[in-house]
Design goal:
single chain, about 200 residues, mainly alpha
Amino acid sequence: MEHNLALSLFSVVLTVVSFAWYCFHIFKGTDRPHAFSWGIWALITGIAFGVQLTQQAGIASVALGAHALTCGIIASIGVYKKNFAYSLVDWLSLVGALVSIALWLFFKEPLQAVILLCVIDIFAFIPSFRKGFRKPFEDNVIKFLLDVVKFIPPLFALESYSIANWLYIACIIATNTAFALWLLVRRYQTKHRFT
């Protein structure tokens, strides 16, 4: 039990570091978060946090709770800085998040809700991947890599290893890894385009 607490607290500390790092770069003007994507991530991570609470994930669930909170703050900063544009994928992701709430609350189907959340998470990344293709230097690779690292400890701190508890965390690790690698590849290609 004590190691679960230590792993979860380590994850929360990394969440704060990642958030502070990203905010520093947002206000410095080097990073521009897509407000709609971050809002969707706040909503779906909050839902996954709620699912973990009801599925006896234990103290490990605080990692998702902290992440949901920071995603919501980043979305608010994005709105404040007018960093938003809405696409069909954005709206479909929002509708999907609302459907997952219905699956979880009304039909008592946490696993189906988490599977839908994973699909929504992937779709919510599409605007970021599109922007990363055109402007690979406007997102912060370190922030996304920190998000990968911060979600590894909660996988080992779960008190119940149901699929509903670990699947969304694994999805976050996979999507953030893919996005960070995408940015690195696009940065390399952009720098070496004319050489």
